[in-house]
């Protein structure tokens, strides 16, 4: 059996209960019917079997996943896990939600199906995540309340923050303190923004100057190394980069994979299959097919002309861009196709955040170098021995 | 792979390999049928598959990624300049098996090595008797290998040569590059073993035991470059084969650079060890 893990970003609905201004997803009231779940599961398991993959990660998100309700998830988890076990496979479930409709009624299924953890999102400052009534301030207040309730219920919460112009203006220190001190989080991830979908006026706030963005990211990285790294705070993708540069096993984010096309797909409530949630919600020209209408997912992925572009993209980048001469090629491979496509209208170019990534990689490399030198340095060894009360001559 | 290849290892075309049974061998495959024949039903003696001329066949690699036989691949590029970007096609296969990339020294060598290193594939460079242009690429690759922290997998022959200059027991270049005819029997379409890089695979000289030592003795007897060459030990006349008139001037520069890097590493290690010793012995100074 293969050690490869296949991931599916599964959107049980494209509907949403909030009105974030920058959201590029095409919202629809369509919901995944429980009656279709066995078919969806069978198609996924057939594919795992064809690929001889034992484990499949299911990332449930939306739209807003919690719209489906806890009972729906409990049922879905049971159907999928039972079918997987019967075929010697395993699904591992993850939940990404805006938390707005979280209530204690979710605790059971979160513990049972999602291993007691979930992912959510919040920006600092929050200007664009809004409730239908009450705007951004009301959103922040309600979300913070839900976050505290979830944490009190023993749920481990990871937060994704998307940067925008006001984040850069606030600066790394206020940004870091908001998440670690005000929200008391020990696990959050910083994402670079991208326009996605049709152009909207609000996206102006997300067109960040690469130099300023790089400066912010490096400042945040430095701050985290000083204050968070040794005290158990995890900030993605910095933590994975430190792992990588110190020679540890690292799980780098999907934007830096050799080729994301072979590692995951996304399926929406109507059965549409595309590369990831960004593609399935926004770019019909890059749909691979429909999992309910086509009996063989493996065949669909092999024969999809749209998917071929994803498969061939890294080849093009090393031939036509300057990626081959980049010292960070091994951890970037030209970056994210959707970030590129949404900004440039083609994916056959390197990620527009190239310079930002390089600055972050260089920062990670420098910090990792210090860590490695400290591990090897006799002076530090002596100090460490002294701290431990052990004589260095023992 | 050379560690697994202790004598004698036959490297032979797929069709001839059928009769090899339990004896250790490498099958050379050049098309899908040959590749999947060995993946489906490998003989016990099969050590790895030498895959030639197949990087362009993307479907074959998609298919190969599904195979769970764990048989290692040595993927040989014939034209690195046009083929290097296809190395991305090997990524999925490498999740299931060891994949090595073999690249001849020629146009595109540096590109192929860079990408192979970025994908964490071990590399074997076949230098042959490199032209001036190929030497330029070799120098670029050496620089990359020595100074690029992203290089994680060995780039042969540079890696073993550096190790040998630091006292490592890696054998000569003939051995490092799997071309010593005493150990590696490279067979032609008729099954005749010979020395690589020559058309006359069945020549008596080449097939006789102790070929490398005899070859070197002959070169020294002629009082040519090899006689007084400081790199005679690791090289054993490798770069004088098949044309003994080949000038090793450029190659010697490459060896010197490797030696200089080795010296630098040794010096740094010595100073580190000294610092550590001083730290652990307070009477010898250091931080108190």
Task: Give a topology summary.
The complex is a heterodimer of chains A (394) and B (288).
Chain A lengths: L1 E9 L26 H15 L1 E8 L9 H17 L3 E6 L11 H7 L3 E5 L13 H18 L3 E7 L2 H18 L4 E5 L18 H18 L6 E3 L1 H8 L18 E4 L4 E3 L2 H6 L6 E2 L6 H7 L1 H16 L8 H4 L4 H8 L9 H23 L1 H10 L7
Helix pairs in contact in A: 1-2, 2-3, 5-6, 6-13, 7-13
Chain B lengths: L8 E5 H4 L7 E5 L2 H9 L5 E7 L5 H8 L7 E4 L3 H4 L15 E6 L4 H10 L4 E4 L5 H16 L7 E2 L1 H8 L7 H4 L7 E4 L5 E2 L9 H4 L3 H11 L10 H4 L13 H32 L8
Parallel strand pairs in B: 1-2, 1-8, 2-3, 3-4, 4-5, 5-6, 6-7
Antiparallel strand pairs in B: 8-9
Helix pairs in contact in B: 5-6, 6-12, 7-12
In sequence order, what are the helices and strands of chain B, one letter per element? EHEHEHEHEHEHEHHEEHHHH
Which pair of protein chains has the largest interface, and what are the residue counts? A-B, 33 and 34 residues
Which structural class is indicated by helix and strand composition of chain A? alpha/beta
Helix content of chain A: 40-55%
Q: Using only CA atoms, what is the Rg of chain A?
A: 22 Å
Task: Specify the CATH class of chain A.
Answer: Alpha Beta
Q: Helix-strand pattern of chain A, N to C? A: EHEHEHEHEHEHEHEEHEHHHHHH
Count of spatially separate domains of chain B: 1
Helix percentage range of chain B: 25-40%
Low-confidence stretches of chain B: 201-206, 284-288
**Beta fraction of chain B:** 5-15%
Number of domains of chain A: 1
């Amino acid at each position: 059996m293969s050690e490869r893990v296949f991931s599916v970003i599964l959107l049980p609905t494209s509907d949403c209960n909030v009105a974030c201004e920058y959201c590029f997803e095409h919202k629809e009231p369509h919901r995944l019917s429980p009656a279709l779940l066995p078919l969806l599961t069978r198609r996924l398991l057939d594919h795992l079997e064809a690929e001889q993959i034992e484990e499949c990660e299911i990332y449930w998100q939306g739209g807003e996943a919690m719209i489906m309700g806890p009972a729906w998830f409990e049922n879905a988890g049971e159907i999928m896990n039972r079918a997987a076990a019967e075929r010697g496979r395993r699904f591992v479930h993850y939940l990404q939600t805006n938390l707005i409709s979280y209530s204690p009624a979710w605790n059971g299924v979160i513990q049972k199906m999602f291993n007691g953890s979930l992912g959510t999102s919040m920006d600092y400052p929050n200007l664009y995540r809004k409730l239908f009534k009450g705007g951004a301030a009301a959103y922040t207040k309600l979300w913070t309340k839900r976050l505290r309730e979830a944490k009190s219920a023993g749920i481990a919460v990871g937060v994704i923050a998307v940067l925008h112009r006001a984040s850069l203006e606030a600066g790394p220190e206020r940004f870091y303190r908001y998440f670690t001190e005000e929200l008391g989080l020990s696990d959050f991830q910083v994402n670079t923004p991208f326009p996605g979908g049709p152009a909207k006026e609000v996206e102006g706030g997300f067109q960040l100057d690469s130099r300023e963005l790089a400066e912010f990211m490096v400042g945040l990285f430095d701050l985290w190394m000083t204050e968070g790294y040794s005290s158990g705070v995890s900030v993605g993708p910095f933590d994975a980069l430190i792992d990588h540069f110190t020679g540890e096993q690292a799980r780098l984010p999907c934007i830096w994979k050799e080729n994301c096309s072979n590692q995951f797909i996304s399926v929406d409530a109507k059965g549409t299959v595309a590369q990831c949630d960004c593609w399935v919600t926004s770019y019909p020209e890059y749909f691979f097919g429909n999992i309910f209408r086509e009996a063989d997912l493996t065949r669909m992925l092999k024969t999809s002309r749209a998917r071929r572009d994803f498969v061939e993209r890294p080849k093009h980048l090393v031939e036509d861009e300057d990626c081959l001469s980049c010292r960070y090629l091994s951890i970037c491979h030209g970056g994210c196709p959707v970030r590129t496509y949404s900004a440039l209208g083609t994916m056959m170019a390197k990620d527009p955040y190239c310079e930002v990534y390089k600055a972050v990689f260089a920062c990670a490399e420098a910090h990792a170098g210090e860590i490695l030198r400290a591990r090897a340095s006799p002076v530090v060894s002596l100090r460490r021995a002294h701290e431990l009360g052990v004589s260095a001559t023992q | 792979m050379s560690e697994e290849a202790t004598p004698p290892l036959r490297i032979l075309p797929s069709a001839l390999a059928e009769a090899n049974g339990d004896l250790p061998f490498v099958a050379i495959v050049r098309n899908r049928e040959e590749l999947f024949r060995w993946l489906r039903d490998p003989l016990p003696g099969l050590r790895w598959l030498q895959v030639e001329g197949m990087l362009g066949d993307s479907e074959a690699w998609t298919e190969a990624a599904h195979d769970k036989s764990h048989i290692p691949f040595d993927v040989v590029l014939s034209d690195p300049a046009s083929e290097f970007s296809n190395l991305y096609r090997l990524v999925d296969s490498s999740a299931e098996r060891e994949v090595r990339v073999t690249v001849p020294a020629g146009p595109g060598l540096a590109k192929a090595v860079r990408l192979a290193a970025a994908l964490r594939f071990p590399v074997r460079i076949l230098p042959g008797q490199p032209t001036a242009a190929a030497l330029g690429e070799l120098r670029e690759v050496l620089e990359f290998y020595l100074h690029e922290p992203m290089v994680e997998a060995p780039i042969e022959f540079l890696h073993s040569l550096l190790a040998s200059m630091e006292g490592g027991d890696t054998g000569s270049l003939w051995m490092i590059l799997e071309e010593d005819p005493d150990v590696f029997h490279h067979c032609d379409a008729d099954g005749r073993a010979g020395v690589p890089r020559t058309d006359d695979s069945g020549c008596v000289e080449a097939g006789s035991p102790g070929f490398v030592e005899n070859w070197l003795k002959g070169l020294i007897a002629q009082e040519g470059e090899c006689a007084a060459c400081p790199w005679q030990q690791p090289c054993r006349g490798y770069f004088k084969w098949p044309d003994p008139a080949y000038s090793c001037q450029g190659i010697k520069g490459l060896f010197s650079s490797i030696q200089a890097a080795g010296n630098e590493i040794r010096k740094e290690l010595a100073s580190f060890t000294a610092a550590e010793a001083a730290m652990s012995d307070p009477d010898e100074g250091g931080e108190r």
